[in-house]
Amino acid sequence: MPAAKKSLAYERVLLKLSGEALLGEKQFGIDRDFSDYLATEIRGVHDLGLQISVVVGGGNIFRGVSDNAQGMDRVSADHMGMLATVINALALQDALERAGVFTRVLSAIEMKEVAEPFIRRRAIRHMEKGRVTVFAAGTGNPYFSTDTAAALRAMEIKAEVILKGTKVDGIYDADPMKHPEAKKFERLTYREVLQRGLRVMDTTAISLCMDNHLPIIVYDLKKKGNLRRIVQGETIGTLVKE
User: Fold this and answer.
1) Are strands 184-185 and 187-188 parallel, antiparallel or unpaired?
2) DSSP states along 158-185
3) What is the CA radius of gyration of the chain?
4) If exposure means fewest CB atoms within 10 Å of the residue's CB, which of 28, 54, 96, 198 is most exposed?
5) What is the per-residue pLDDT across 19-77, written as a single tens digit (0 to 9) for each?
6) Which long-range contacts (CB under 8 A, 24 or more apart) does 189-193 make?
7) Exposed, middle or buried by CB within 10 Å (0-12, 13-18, 19+), for 155?
8) Between 74-98 and 32-46, two packed helices, what is the crossing angle to 10 degrees?
9) Residues whose CB is less than 8 angstroms from the CB of residue 199 and which lie 6 or more positions away in sequence, other chains included
10) Which has the closest alpha carbon to 238: 190, 195, 177, 205?
C-alpha cells in the first residue's frame, strides 16, 4: 500500500500517454528503458499516496488514421489500433510491477485471458486499494481517439485533472520543434484551444472536458520529476481550464 499522503494538490489523477511516448529513443515498438523510466515516475507519485490511472495510445505500433491504414476499412483499422493500446498497456503494467507497484489493466474490449474488462466501480476500487489502473483499448468504439478515451475515463473515475505527457513543455502557438520562435502558453481556456485549433487533444476530448469542467495540464514527460512537481502543486507546463 502507498505511504500516507504528503502535500498533494490532487487525490486522483489520470495520466494520458501517447503510444509514441513508449518509443523512447526507438523508431518503432517499445523502448524498455523508457518504459522503466515512466514506471519510476509513476511510482514516485503513487508512493506519495496519489491515486493514479493511465490511458495509453497505440501509435508506436499502429494508428487507425496513419499512412499505414490508408485504404483499409476505418472500423477494422481502428480496432487494430485499439489492440495496439492493449500491447502498450501490458508493457507498462510489466514495467510498473517490476518497479514494485501493483497494477491492473482494464480493457474496453473483452479479452479476459490478458486483462480485466473495464467496469467503472471495479476500476475505482482498484485505485482505492492502492493499485495503478491502466485503461486499454480506448473507448472500445471506432472513430474515437485515445484522447477522447482519456477524457471519458477521467470523468467516469472522478479524476480531478488529466495530465497529458508530451515531448514538449506545454502548449505552443506552433510546433516548437519546427518553429523555435513559437510562443508558449501558460494557461488557456477550452474555447481558446478549440478556436485556435491547437493540437493538444482532439476536439471531442476538449469538448468533453469543457462540458464537465475537467482541467488538463500538458507537460514535458521526459523531464525527470515533473510528474511529482505537478501533483504537489507546482506550476508546470500549460493549464487548460475555464
Assistant:
1) unpaired
2) T-S-EEEEESSSSEESS-TTT-TTPPEE
3) 17
4) 28
5) 888 888 888 889 999 999 999 999 999 999 999 999 999 989 987 777 777 889 999 99
6) 189/240, 189/241, 189/242, 190/240, 190/241, 190/242, 193/240
7) middle
8) 70
9) none
10) 190
Report the 10 Å Cβ neighbour count for 32: 15
Inter-residue contact 54 to 17 (CB < 8 Å): yes
Between CA 194 and CA 178 the distance in angstroms is 22
Integer CA distances (angstroms), 120 to 49, 116, 133, 141, 155, in order: 21, 11, 11, 17, 10
pLDDT exceeds cutoff 60 at 233: yes
Residues with Cβ < 8 Å from 222, sequence gap 6 or more?
167
Contact 221, 17 (CB under 8 A): yes
**What is the grid cell recorded at 4?**
500516507
> Hey, what domains does the chain have and what are their CATH numbers?
12-240 (3.40.1160.10)
